[in-house]
Amino acid sequence: MRLSRRKALGTLTAGIVSLSGCNSADDTDDGDGSSSIDERDGDGGEDPVDDDGGGAPAADDEVAGFDAEGYGIEFDRVVNAVDDLGMDPTGEEPIDDALDDAIETGTRIEFPPGDYTVTEEPPTKPARSTSRLGLVGLGESQRDVQFHFPTAGEREDGFWFVNQAGGEDVLLANFSIQLSDDLETSVSIRLDTNDNGIAEDLEWLGFIPAQIQSKGSLLRMNVSSRNGATTDGVNVVRRVTMGRQGSYMGGHAADTGTTPGSTFMRHTPNHVGELRLEDVHFEQCGHNAVRSMNNPGVVTVKGGYFLNCDVSTLRFQGGGHPTKTSLIEGVHIEQDHSKLNRTAGTEPHEAMGILVDSYEGHSGLVIRDCDIEYKDVSVATENAGALWGIIRCTNTGASNPGGFTVENCRIRNDTRAQTFWIQSTNDGVEGPPGVKLKDLDVTITADRQARGSVCAIMDGRDGSSVSNCCIQAPNGNFHGITVNGCSDVVVEDSNINVNGFAISMIDSDGDTRNISVNESCDDTTVE
Q: Which domains can be identified in the chain, with CATH numbers?
């Protein structure tokens, strides 16, 4: 029988636990203001965009022969974009009229490998609400079918390729959106279906420009009550790739006074159902890679790779759904500025990992089975608003999130980014305010933590707990767990190896038990 390191922690005898009375530094603001940017500089000497991409491998770069069946959608007709609709796969002639005429309920349009030119946006007032619709590429890879938008760069507010508000059973699959290398073209998809909207094996190629040049986000998939959706609705994003060929990284407007980069996915206040993200590859987002913190809906993220996202990687709340709570499970988050690709002269700033945030006071977010690595954030360290932290629960501005859980995760931090920063509660929190940290492996090699401890838990987070955790941070003069102004706190069955105090309780009450301060938390094998 093999006894895991986490199980072994529960058998440790209690070590010496030290208490202190030092205070944490003041909080910083992260408001949502935005303003225009005066100019954009090219990097100079960068290679132009090519179809092979760059950086780390995508979650699933190739799709071995796309099968459009099996999505639970009954199509009345299937048409070939070239043979049946006369679309030009060479990109010389626009497909606008043929595409507009073909979109109707019950139709799946299949695109053979090629390049297709789109020059006009779909209707917006009102947007389409077509049901049982499919736009599907027939190539072996999503890059075999590419849509090009030569007029999009002229627009100052982005370009809609798909603009769907309502309806259900809509499939977008196995194609790419080519943004080009002009640093200005921004193309978005709005797939706000009421249920069973599916975006699968899509990729945004080319350079992703600043937020001010976009529609607010590159992909929107709200289950929106405004369109008649209910809490039963579920939309799915599967193996979608963004950012592998560079993006604008402007930092948060509250820190820099300029526009940030483009948000990849963002929810509106009317989102009431569930969005599921599976095995996405989101790289070098210059804003929030996924943002959902002002609505009653939920977001589920399972698997996926998030590299060098800035301002934040995942900005989430628990949600107010009657039967579900938001979940982040099995994701790999990495910050490594040695892997930055094209930035057009801009730089990352905040290098944020997971930001627990809610304008609604929602509690209950679960972060589980994740692998978080902070290897190098050197490009951001001297910039305005630098290093907002790896896992942070914020209270700035209108933010008032409740409690959340982090469990069975591995965190390695080779940088000075704050590892856990749990800010105090604001009025209006719904549900328990405490944070639960359990079954965590935390290794820090840096010599500094901005909050003076590996984990800073601030006022009002009553009922917080740390259990069965391994914290190894032997190189700096800072504490392990600092709790300030909280009641009913429990820290137990954990090994906390730091040069400061293992646990610091300031104006707080609770219980500490079975705490060790050993140099190792290695697995123990029982024969």
A: 77-516 (2.160.20)
